[in-house]
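Module 6 notes. Inverse folding takes a fixed backbone as the condition and produces residue identities as the prediction. Think of it as a translation problem where the source language is geometry and the target language is the twenty amino acids. Below is one complete input and output pair. Work through it position by position during the lab.
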């Protein structure tokens, strides 16, 4: 933040203008968005299969679960990216509806994620 705006933060009155509407803000927003997307992708890649796997197979280690999750993302990159995007869309819908939509979207995403996990784990176990 200080690389773009200096050591003194913008005043509360100018915060929105200086953060979103000035020429200096564009690189800040682009780099921040890219960094956030990378962190989100890493978190998604690590957890998309590992969390359901650990619930389904408590004897599995966390390292095995993370490795399976990363392997699933590497093996099916387009399908997993699409699923990640759909999760974002469903959760965003739930949030935009003042959290009321989460009553529908969270169980839907959880149920679909469980079935995706079961399909991927079964397919990978059969493959070798």
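Target side of the pair, the amino acids:
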């Amino acid at each position: 933040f200080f690389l773009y705006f200096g050591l003194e933060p913008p005043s509360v009155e100018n915060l929105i203008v200086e953060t979103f509407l000035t020429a200096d803000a564009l690189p800040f927003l682009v780099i921040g968005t890219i960094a956030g997307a990378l962190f989100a992708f890493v978190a998604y890649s690590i957890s998309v299969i590992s969390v359901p796997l650990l619930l389904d197979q408590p004897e599995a280690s966390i390292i095995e679960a993370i490795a399976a999750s990363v392997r699933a993302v590497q093996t099916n990159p387009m399908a997993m990216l699409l699923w990640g995007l759909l999760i974002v869309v469903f959760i965003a819908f739930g949030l935009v509806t003042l959290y009321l939509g989460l009553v529908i979207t969270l169980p839907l995403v959880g149920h679909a994620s469980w079935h995706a996990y079961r399909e991927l784990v079964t397919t990978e176990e059969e493959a070798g």
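Reference fact for the lab report: Residues 45 and 124 are 16 Å apart (CA to CA).
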